[in-house]
Every structure is written in structure tokens, then in C-alpha cells.
Amino acid sequence: MTDRDQPAGSSTLVGRNRITARALRAVAAAAVAETLNVAGRAVSADLADDHGKLAVTVRAAIPVVSLAAIQRNPRALELSGGTLLERCERAQRQTKERVEQLTGRRVSRVDIRVTNARIEGEERVR
Questions:
Q1: DSSP conformation letters of 52-112
Q2: Domain spans of the chain, in order of start
Q3: Which of 21, 81, 100, 126 has the highest CB neighbour number within 10 Å of its CB?
Q4: Mean per-residue pLDDT for 68-90?
Q5: Which top CATH class is 18-120?
Q6: Residue 113: predicted pLDDT
Q7: How far apart (Å, rounded) are the C-alpha atoms in residues 41 and 29?
């Protein structure tokens, strides 16, 4: 059957779709930024081929609750999303799921590298 033989309104489309590496990196970085609740500019992502699947490496600056805030309110750590390790593990899982959902590509792993910790709730001494 040729394209001319297709009935009007047929759902068969001719062509190719391609998602560039740049777009995949942007999706991965945005997924991590959303999960960690940080600005997109605080996150960068690199991709590698891992036997036909995507291996994602993300670098992010992450806000952490200050020790003073934890002393004032013992639940401050829990309210901030948990320990740094817990938050990164959750971000790994959610980023893998989100990238697969948005791009249709299989993700073998997500490595998160914390590049900076921005202390929140810390008062400066003058």
C-alpha cells in the first residue's frame, strides 16, 4: 500500500523522529531540578551510551538545612525532604522514571554528583 492508497485521516505517518542529545540532556537536567526543587541553572547533565540505554550523569548544587535550624526544630530535616543521601536516591529514581516517560528512551542509571551545598536558614554573624 502506498501513501496515495491510504484513506484520508489515516494515522500512519511517514517520516522519522529524532531527539537530539542536547534535548535529552535538557530533559534530564530539568527532571533533576524539579525533583530536588532547585533552579534549572544549578543543574547540568551528561549522557553516555550504556549498551543501548542512556546513562545519565547529573551535577547539581543542592540546598541543605542548616545545623542551627535542626537544633531549633528537630523536624527541620524531615520537612526539608530528608537527608542529602535520601534526597539524591529519590531524585535518581524519579529522574529515571521521568526521562523514560518523556523521551521514550530506556535509562540504565542516573548518577548524581552534588557540586555544592547551599545552607538554608543559616544566620550570618556580623
A1: TEEEEEEEEEEEEE-HHHHHH-TTHHHHTTS-HHHHHHHHHHHHHHHHHHHH---EEEEEE
A2: 18-120
A3: 81
A4: 89
A5: alpha beta
A6: 95
A7: 9
